[in-house]
Amino acid sequence: MDFILDYITVTTFWTILFIVHALLAVALIGALTHQAVAVLAPVRQATAAGGFVTRFRSVSGPGYATAVCVLWVLTFIFGGWIYTKYRIYVRIPIEQQGFWKTQGIFELKEHLATIGLGLLPLYWYLWKNARETAYDSVRKWLTVLLAVICWYAFLVGHILNNVRGFGS
Question: What is this structure's pTM?
Answer without folding.
Answer: 0.84
